[in-house]
Structures are given as structure tokens and as C-alpha cells.
Amino acid sequence: MRERTELEDRLGTLKKFETELDDAVTLIELGEMEDDESAQDEGVEQLKAIKKEAERRQVEALLSGEADANDTYLEVHSGAGGTESCDWARMLLRMYTRWAERRKFKVELIEETSGDEAGIKSATLLIKGHNAHGWAKTESGVHRLVRISPFDSNARRHTSFASAWVYPVVDDRIDIQINESDCRIDTYRASGAGGQHINKTDSAVRITHIPTGIVVSCQMERSQHKNRATAWNMLRARLYEQELERRQAETDKLNAGKTEVGWGHQIRSYVLQPYQMVKDLRTGVVSGTPDEVLDGDLDAFMEAALAQRVNGGGPDSVEDVD
């Protein structure tokens, strides 16, 4: 039923484009025949609106991957840089939360580990919405921040790193078999907000998949049973993403012209001082308004990365920015 709804929506959009295009052209032709400039202008404005909507739909057409329509998990991890890095990870978490809210997606915080002094060491979001994974998948990689550190009494410039990792929620159409004997399950007391109950019982669950070394954890529910169920779903999703990554690596080997964007490689730099700029090192897309980007304005970066995945290649120059 979901596939049928998507197909009906796409076919309906094509028919709508045909009708609106015919109406706009007819209006312009009538305006020219009757020397009515207002009618001509109205027809031109209609054509501009059709073009804008067609461009948006063209990007959505790129979301044709096996799991692009699914909900998605998004993990954020602090990197080198201590407290500064943990604060940067918190900023990234807020950025992706704001991006999801802009797109009317539903966002749930699955797990969060606070930093020793500020920020977070790691956190996991569950983002629910149509094509949530298709859009967010382009954000996997290392993100670099350059700014005057608020934690440095000498007001020196610091460089911090944090990573994002995106993998799809596995639905009933995808069968992932896990041998429980290959897993180690640990329970522990949750940290952070949640009241007395969440902090006084071993409700948090951590599952380690021994063959792959994949570790997932959930602590946001009061019930250990619910946390365990969520953790199993996360593990299935991580194993599925690992398989997709293996397939992508094989495809990249066959296509030497395609830009390789491996997990853990820096994909974007956010410079707040001495100047302001955000630059994507894969596509070359640049924004001069970091505040807007950090408030969730990521569509231009995602659209360019999606187009690059389909078309192959990269920018003429992806040199790093200081």
C-alpha cells in the first residue's frame, strides 16, 4: 500500500505538471494575442512556480534507494578535542533535531551520554518520516568546527571534531537474522534526566554483537523490556546498514570516477572565526551563514550530495578550509 501511494503521488504530480504547464502557456499566448501584459506576467509567474516545484520533485526522485523511504537512526559522537568536542557534538545534535523539525519529521531521543564537563559524548536520534533516511544518509561522516572556544580563558581558536552516523530503521520488508548466542546483553543504570526510577534501576540495555563488534544501547524508556526491544531493532538496523555499505564499496570499485566517501572521513567544515563559512568538502557547496546551517538549514548540502551520488564525481577542488 505504501508503494502504491508513492506511485500514485508521482503519477498525479506528472499529470498536474502537464495541466499547469498547458494553462500557463495558453495564458501567455492569449496575453500576447490581446496585448495584455498582466496576463503575460501572470503566465510567466506560473511557469516559474512550476519550475521551482519540478526542481524539488527532481531531488526527491533521487531518493530511490532500497531503504530511502524508511525512518532512520542518527548517531552523533564527539571526537578529538575533549570538552570542546563534546560541546560541538551537542551543537550537531541540535542541528539535526532542528533540521528534522523543519521537515515535519518526528524526532525521538533514544540514547544520550553526557560529557564530563559539558556537551555530550554520544547520542542517538530516531527520526520518523517519509524519506527520512534518504535525506539524512548523506550526513554520515566527520564534521569539523573552527571557532574561538568558550571554554578557553585565553580566547584562542580551537578545532574540534564530531561524527554523525546514519542508518535506516529496518521494517518488515527486510529480513535480518541475528543469532542471539552471538550477542552479549548488559544492563546498567541510565544516566541523565528521567527521574528517580530511571536512575535507580538497571533499566538501560546494551547489546554487543560479538562477530562484528557493533554495540548499541538504549536507556530512554523506564522499562528494561522496552529498552531491550529498541536495542534489538537498532542492532538489526546497524547490521543492515553494514550490508548496504559493503554493497556500496563494491559498486565504488567498479566506478573509478565516483567520489569515495567512507565512514569516518571528514565531509564538512564549519568555520565561525576568523570568518564565517560552512563548506562541504565532497560537493563544494558553501554557505556564508553558519548560524542558519546550525539551526537546521541543511537542504542545499543534502541535495548536492544526493545528486553527486547519482551522477558521480565531485567538485573541481575539495581542499580543506582553515
UniProtKB/TrEMBL annotation:
Cellular component, GO, one term: cytoplasm
PROSITE patterns in the cross-refs: RF_PROK_I
Principal location listed in the UniProt entry: cytoplasm
GO molecular function annotation: translation release factor activity, codon specific
Residues the record lists as N5-methylglutamine modifications: 196
Domain Prokaryotic-type class I peptide chain release factors: 189-205
Keywords attached to this entry: Cytoplasm, Methylation, Protein biosynthesis
Posttranslational mods: Methylated by PrmC. Methylation increases the termination efficiency of RF2.
Cellular localization per UniProt: Cytoplasm
Origin: domain of life: Bacteria
Similarity comment: family membership: Belongs to the prokaryotic/mitochondrial release factor family.
PANTHER family: CLASS I PEPTIDE CHAIN RELEASE FACTOR, PEPTIDE CHAIN RELEASE FACTOR 2
Cited function: Peptide chain release factor 2 directs the termination of translation in response to the peptide chain termination codons UGA and UAA.
The protein's name: Peptide chain release factor 2
Gene field: prfB
